[in-house]
Amino acid sequence: MKVVKFGGSSMADAGQYRKVRDILLADPERRVVVVSAAGKRFGNDHKLTDLLYLCYAHVQYGVDCSSIFDMIASRYLDIRDELGLDLALEPELEALKKRIDAKEVTQEELITGRTFFRTTVQKVYKGDIPHEFVLAQEGCSTWTYRNYPVFTYGNQLLLFLIKYDVSMYRDTYDLVEYPDAYELINTYSTVMYVTQDDSGMSYVLDALGMMTQWSQINQPADCPAVAHPGQEQLLQIRDNLTKQDPVLAAIAPSQADPDRPVASSGDLYRLTDLEDYFARLSADYT
Question: In terms of Cα–Cα distance, which of 217, 236, 231, 219 is closest to 260?
Fold first, then answer.
């Protein structure tokens, strides 16, 4: 599996998006894509990051930023329309504009894509985390791409967290401090997605291979085995993943194969197997 990043001029317009698509399709190993804001299309054009800074500055001084925000919105809507995408961006852009006008968006969220979510804990396997806490998401925000394969509304996630250290960023950004915030221990590789088949059996999709790589490197005898659901169950799982996030469904295995070798990503584990494993780890290391 390869991780690729595109940003700036490589995401500037619809033509550049098509080039990115062709680059991705040319190598099936390019399965994780990180994008940043669109750059300049021509010499005296504006980078969207600069326009976002202007929006934030206008609002802080009580000046209407509608004309600047319209430039940002138009760029994304033009890209969508030229590519012929069936993507309802207008409600998300309108919601973002309302938050900006109400001064509900912090600078680090608007500019760097570091977003803070109020999160509810269903179960803690090790350590002490409040039932409700703030989850600091690095790398994107929910309005930039509704199918971003890290956090989308409604997903139940299995996360590996550490306390968020706001001092790490204070020299660069004027951050709001979140005293109860946590973040992932190693960006996206520590995210696993919980889904179900139609019987209610819960599975965990190891989208980026975190659990699988741990098992391969450490090879402890008690590591949970990769699950191999039957074909009917697998289709149910993929269908339910599609309702959560189409990107996740594309990562999950499509054919039932008990002899399928353990992959670096896209493996399924039964949630009960992982719960038993984490319970043993907690007993061993407390």
Answer: 231
